[in-house]
Sequence to fold (204 residues):
Amino acid sequence: MPRYREPYTLYPRRLNKSGIVVWYYRVYVNEGHRISRSTGKTSKTLARLYCDQLLREGKLIPQKILTLQDWAEERNWFVWDKCEYIRGKLARSPAERPAISRRYADRCRKELLRWILPYHGTLPIEKITPTDCEKLLFSWKNAGLSSKSINNIASTYRTILNEAERLGIISSNPWKKVSPFKPEKKSKGILTLEEAKGSVLYFV
Fold:
């Protein structure tokens, strides 16, 4: 006799250092793949009521697996006058000292279109792993980018997935487990023998 499987399972997750616990639900979709979603509830009872309501409405399982490309388009990432993330940052910072500049947003947008979406755009956002991010990091290195440029692009990607985590779209940002490269040190240069002799004569 086959074992009965509950339509969903609940589990708690502590949000960063705030100490607040939010309940998530996990559900199976096609081919045995599991996805997780935040209920936004801090009580298990309320979380169960929320999931039961979704189940009755046929909305417990998302109709579409969200890809990184979908997430980028849905949130208009780094488009100055459309991006919800930028709007939120600007609204929460003083007008005389905005948290984000137009120049920064434009740079991140270019990095997203050139170095992130062509590589990971088709990946389901929930299935992106630290290994995926690590491989991407080294693919940028192999493309000849400097460590500073690579770290900037990784920071852009990290910001995008941090927001997905904050909103409960994913349970954890895989970039948290990927270390950045150390920036290259600028060489000071070594004086030639003739330059050294000239320096000695000058100071004498």
